[in-house]
Amino acid sequence: MHRKARRGLAIASTLALLITAAGCSGDDGPGSGGASVPGVTDTEIVVGTHMPLTGPASAGYSKIAPATKAYFDYVNANGGVHGRKITYKIMDDGYNPANTQQVVRQLVLQDKVFAILNGLGTPTHTGVLDFLKSNRVPDLFVASGSRSWDQPDKYPGTFGFNPDYTVEGKILANYAKANLGGQKVCFLGQDDDFGRDSLAGVEKVLGATAVAVKQTYVTSNTNVAPQIGAFKAAGCQVVVLATVPGFTALSVGTAARLGFKPQWLVSNVGADHPTLAKQLGAAAPLLEGMVGTNYLPMQNDTANPWIQLFTKVNKEHNGDAPFDGNTVYGMSVGYLFVQTLLAAGKDLTREKVLEAVQKGGFQGPGLVPLRFSATDHSGYGGQRLSRVSGGVQSYFGPAYETDEADGSVNEYTATPAAPPANGVPTVS
Amino acid sequence: MSATRAAVPPRHKRDDPGGRPVDPRRGSTLLRHLAVVLAVGLLLVAVSYSVEPFRNFQLATVAAYLCATAGLTVLTGLNGQLSLGHGALMATGAYTVALCQTAFADRGMTGGWLLPLSLGAAIISTVAVGAVVGVAAARLRGPYLAGVTLAVAVVVPALAVTFDGVFNGEQGLSVPVEPPPLSLGPYFPYERWQLWVTGAATLLALLLLANLIRSRYGRTFRAVRDDEVAARLAGIHVARTQVLAFVVSAATAGLGGALLAVLAQSVSPGAFSLTLSLFLLMAVVIGGLGRLTGALWGAVLLVALPDLTHSVTEMLTLSPAVAQRLEGNLPLAIFGLTLIVVMIAAPGGVQGLLSRLGRALLARRSTRRS
């Protein structure tokens, strides 16, 4: 009899605990009522994101979301958007798609966020596309240049931010074609859509057979000596890197150890000089001559009014954290989101936000235009080249614009917009 | 306490019901387990209606992990074999289900019977892998066995990266899963459906495990764990028993991984790293080795801990940099600390502690009565 009682007790206690755990947040809230919009009250808008704050891709990237949050805090301190303060919930997914599943569900189902903003990573974000779609959550300005975000028919609520990796590959290859003609070009890419799309862009410009050696890496293996060794053995003179910052630093460092000195052409996601210099430490001079791309103001260009604004925000609301390209990126995302909210109007709904983004016409820090329309959900449409010289990364030449298909790479000459006087966008 | 029970050495008192003479009044073990499973199943349905979607999803995740931890409990707690590679077995099941579901979707096949078919395929493939590892494991002891299973934990995710044509490297595969059947209504919450599917599969697996434990095989498992020489003298084929235990354990781990993939609708090597294997082992030890209820506590812990650390870091007002570092690493630290504390304070794990408390309560009540 005791045995039975004991088992009963065990089962009962288990169930009781489960139910209390469930009951703790069992309040269904107004979100299920249908009348109100999830995450939106008269005084607050709650948005969330997933970011690699830890793990293999955290170098540099872990600073993006805090920078965005700092910009929101700045806007909140200036009265918010239509009287609402923005609350930004940042969840760490460690760049692990399984964690992304968990944290995004938590944001959407438990925290009832209005939208997911700037979720970072191709493999991580791919896994939540369907979930966000079926819950009709706006999936704005994904922090990755995968072409997957640009599928208006399949994912009407998803919009990119970065120029897509094919556009970037084309612009990098265009530079190689014009300035490094006749040299042996090789390619190292991440073993996912990032690397594949980028390679596709490079081959669109140089030709399908022009890339002599193609290598890939995975973020779980921090040894790129075999790949770099293959480049050296093949006598590569130009190496295009579609790498995250940690692996750009690793590749440059490994090449130096092997006595291999090619011309590096680096994707914008892995070309931020302060991030790389911090990773390499004393070996930072190895970055001399590296050519990278970007489409936002350069973080060391103190004459740029956007950089002045962002530096001020960084001082006041981000604990004066080291200022680099990730800070500029995070704040630019914040600026674009505030613009979107303003354009969506005072009676904020998810549908209105999507309409506002599709209408496009945003002017911000970017050197090239954002391409948002009803049929185009990709982000920025081009890039400008930068070079590290004397330990300083700066732009050279014009900005370029191109498409992800076979279109040519064209110069883009319009001058970027200046920021509003108080740093907060107004309804245009 | 009966005289027979007192004669059994203390360690086996609770987890060795098969060693006692069967009480004819207790009736069929299978029927008893069936009744419990039915009751839990009904309760799960009731709970699924009363809580919000995210809790449903979390409970479904607990159920998926429970499959794996229950299998590991049988292997480590009842058969005495240590496995550091159960995360890899979960990955095997997960990838099988992904490949099957994708194949079905590509051929335009739809229907409610496809998912059970894929889950079955996942179990079969994991059984195959488990049999191979199990045969090796039966020849090895202690640290050598740990070494082999550790190698499995490292190699399987690496395979996904090496053969990226099939497994799509670190980006992994997506797992197309059909929405809940229309007969449940057009607005049936997807998370509730997920809980039903994973809950049903897990309860079935637990039912089979519970019966196995109480059967002749369960007794041979324990006999081999306690003393291999004595077991051999009693006519038990030790190696065969060990392989059987490994295969059973692998099958449930494979099912657990498959369910996890169905829940996440995606599978990637990052989800089945070595850390997961270690977490599984820690979870069953903390939950209480040797009892299936212990496996439940372990599974709950696996899901609750990251959530808990997030709330903790949110509550503390820390500088962003410190908070970031903490959030990523705190679960590991807490897990380790819990393991140490539990081992010192309650060697029987959470379940051991609970049943000790329960017994103390009962004893007090019966003394008061007499």
Describe the structure in your own words.
The complex is a heterodimer of chains A (428) and B (370). Chain A is of the alpha/beta class and 428 residues long. In chain A, 39% of the residues lie in helices and 17% in strands. Chain A has helices at 2-24, 64-77, 97-110, 122-126, 129-134, 165-179, 193-206, 225-234, 245-257, 273-280, 305-317, 325-344, 350-359; strands at 44-51, 85-92, 115-117, 139-142, 158-160, 185-190, 211-217, 238-242, 263-266, 291-294, 382-389, 392-401, 410-412. In chain A, helix 2 (64-77) crosses helix 12 (325-344). Residues 19-34 of chain A have low confidence and may be disordered. With 370 residues, chain B is an all-alpha fold. Helix content of chain B is 75%, strand content 1%. A two-stranded antiparallel sheet of chain B has the order 1-2. In chain B, helix 3 crosses helix 12 (274-287). Chain B is globular.
Characteristic key phrases:
heterodimer; A: 428 residues; alpha/beta; eight-stranded mixed β-sheet; five-stranded parallel β-sheet; 13 helices; B: 370 residues; mainly alpha; two-stranded antiparallel ribbon; 15 helices; 2 strands; 75% helix; disordered N terminus
Spans of at least 5 consecutive residues with low confidence of chain A: 19-34
Radius of gyration of chain A, taken over Cα atoms and rounded to an integer in Å: 23 Å
Helical amount among residues of chain B, as a percent range? over 70%
Percent of residues in beta strands of chain B: under 5%
Element-by-element helix/strand order of chain A: HEHEHEHHEEHEHEHEHEHEHHHEEE
Strand order of the largest sheet of chain B: 1-2
Number of strands of chain B: 2
Shape of chain A: globular
* Number of helices in the DSSP assignment of chain A: 13
Strand order of the largest sheet of chain A: 7-6-8-9-10-11-12-13
Please work out how many helical segments of chain B DSSP would assign. Answer: 15
What is the radius of gyration of chain B computed over CA atoms, rounded to a whole number of angstroms? 21 Å
Give the overall form of chain B. Answer: globular
Q: Return the string of H and E elements of chain B.
A: HHHHHHHEHHHHEHHHH
- Which two chains have the most extensive interface, and how many residues on each? A-B, 57 and 58 residues
Strand content of chain A: 15-25%
Low-pLDDT stretches of chain B: 1-20
Span between N and C termini of chain A?
77 Å
Pfam families (chain A): Peripla_BP_6 (PF13458)
Organism (chain A): Micromonospora vinacea
Keywords (chain A): Signal
Protein name (chain A): ABC-type branched-subunit amino acid transport system substrate-binding protein
